[in-house]
């Protein structure tokens, strides 16, 4: 620069022009535009900034950005450190690291589409709910025939809470036939045919629960016909004086048998027989939408943290580790007292890089969050887009959000640059 400043300036000029056109000018114009109203004709000073800190959507975006900044770098760095340390000595460590790093090759848009499908509410479509429902149904009993119900004006009637109870008392001399409808024919395709129950022994009460519907509409209502199917596994309770005096469960042919105490009682089919099947968790609802999106981001960036930390771990002097082990330190003490302090500069790089990255997160939130819960998952970059180009159409507020984002990112960048300069002097 001192010897031949003209040549140096000529080489730097194209870069300076591009930097000014693509970085400096947009920053200055955003600051200028943030002081005007939506139309850009009236000067409002800091009015747009006041709007940001009083508007509910903007406050939600600020809160969510704070959650992202605190949670994501910490989780990604912790996972990257664990993966790097645990895979250092295993033979298949390289293959594992490759698998963990592979999501980095996927764009944010593609990742958002993938996880929108993963978080689909329907367990037949969404992987997350398919797994969750499978685990739930393993430990929790599901309803026997969801959606089944009696015919209007039938002997069975609603008795509160989704249960059905007979209108009149039953007798040991007369088997109780409890007819239900509302079950899709495909659900009973493999069921056995319904049979009339024989009289119960020892003065008990017997009966049959069946699907009172035959293909083609054949048969008579409330009569067990030859083509009608039994409903297996339905719980039947005998209720007398408000108390349950007997319980039974229908067999494969739909029949059941209650003890003699059920004579003169009313029969109740509990609501647990007809409850809708467990449909999993609403991952993209207002409560879990932000944690769910954070999970997709961690899936992508944990590999980035792992690779950087693994590179730093490769440079840790093995003599330090072996000396600590010889002195009697266990693996946890070696990890906590030596590995982590030596890797502190690398961990700092990972955390700062992720902090800068999550401050401007936009793609995943825009793609994954459904319109119903997008406000609950809102972040500053998304609010900037919605304010400037969405339904709000207020580029004054959008420019103010952009300036705030810049002010949030600059201190982190300054810290990172100063740290890099200190590292280069060593």
Short recap of the structure:
The protein has 426 residues and is of the alpha+beta class. Helices cover 49% and strands 9% of the residues.
Task: Tell me what the structure shows.
By secondary structure, this protein is of the alpha+beta class. It has two domains: 240 residues, Orthogonal Bundle (MetI-like fold); 118 residues, no CATH class. Helix content is 49%, strand content 9%. It has a five-stranded antiparallel beta sheet with strand order 1-2-8-5-6, with no helix packed on it. A hairpin with a 5-residue loop joins strand 1 and strand 2. The longest helix is centred in the N-terminal third of the chain and has 31 residues. The model has no long low-confidence stretch (mean pLDDT 87).
Which key features would you list for this structure?
426 residues; 2 domains; 5-stranded antiparallel sheet; 3-stranded mixed sheet; MetI-like_sf; transmembrane
> How many DSSP E strands?
8
CATH-assigned homologous superfamily of the largest domain: MetI-like
CATH topology of the largest domain: MetI-like fold
CATH class of the largest domain reads Mainly Alpha
Counting helices, strands and paired strands, the structural category is alpha+beta
CATH architecture of the largest domain: Orthogonal Bundle
Helix content class: 40-55%
Mean pLDDT: 87
Strand order of the largest sheet: 1-2-8-5-6
Main sheet record: 5 strands, antiparallel
Could you tell me the radius of gyration in angstroms?
Answer: 34 Å
Number of domains: 2
Strand proportion? 5-15%
End-to-end gap = 26 Å
Total DSSP helices: 13
């Amino acid at each position: 620069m001192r010897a031949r400043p003209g040549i140096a300036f000529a080489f730097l000029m194209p870069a300076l022009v591009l930097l000014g056109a693509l970085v400096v000018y947009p920053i200055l114009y955003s600051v200028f535009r943030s002081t005007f109203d939506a139309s850009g004709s009236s000067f409002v000073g800091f009015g747009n900034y006041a709007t940001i800190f009083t508007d509910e959507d903007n406050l939600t975006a600020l809160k969510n950005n704070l959650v992202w900044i605190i949670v994501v770098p910490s989780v990604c760095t912790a996972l990257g450190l664990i993966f790097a340390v645990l895979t250092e000595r295993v033979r298949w460590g390289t293959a594992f690291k490759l698998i963990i790093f592979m999501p980095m090759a996927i764009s944010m848009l593609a990742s958002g589409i993938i996880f929108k499908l993963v978080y689909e509410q329907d367990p037949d479509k969404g992987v997350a709910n398919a797994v969750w429902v499978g685990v739930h149904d393993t430990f929790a009993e599901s309803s026997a025939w969801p959606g089944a119900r009696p015919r209007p004006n039938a002997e069975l009637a609603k008795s509160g809470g989704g249960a059905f109870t007979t209108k009149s008392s039953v007798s040991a001399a007369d088997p109780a036939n409890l007819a239900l409808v509302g079950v899709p024919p495909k659900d009973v395709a493999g069921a056995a045919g319904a049979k009339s129950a024989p009289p119960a022994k020892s003065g008990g009460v017997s009966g049959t629960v069946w699907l009172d519907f035959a293909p083609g509409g054949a048969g008579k209502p409330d009569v067990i016909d030859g083509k009608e199917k039994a409903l297996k596994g339905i719980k039947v309770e005998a209720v007398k004086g408000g108390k349950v005096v007997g319980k039974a469960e229908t067999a494969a042919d739909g029949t059941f048998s209650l003890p003699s105490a059920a004579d003169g009682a009313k029969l109740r089919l509990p609501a647990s027989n007809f409850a809708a099947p467990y449909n999993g968790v609403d991952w993209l609802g207002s409560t879990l939408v932000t944690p769910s999106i954070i999970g997709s981001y961690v899936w992508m960036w944990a590999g980035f943290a792992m690779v950087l930390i693994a590179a730093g771990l490769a440079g840790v002097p093995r003599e330090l580790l072996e000396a600590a082990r010889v002195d009697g330190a266990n693996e946890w003490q070696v990890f906590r007292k030596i590995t982590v302090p030596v890797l502190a500069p690398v961990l700092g790089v990972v955390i700062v890089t992720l902090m800068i990255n999550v401050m401007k997160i936009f793609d995943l939130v825009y793609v994954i969050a459904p319109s119903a819960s997008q406000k609950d998952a809102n972040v500053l970059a998304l609010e900037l887009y919605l304010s400037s180009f969405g339904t709000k159409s207020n580029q004054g507020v959008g420019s103010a959000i952009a300036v705030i984002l810049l002010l949030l990112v600059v201190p982190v960048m300054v810290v990172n640059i100063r740290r890099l300069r200190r590292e280069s002097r060593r």
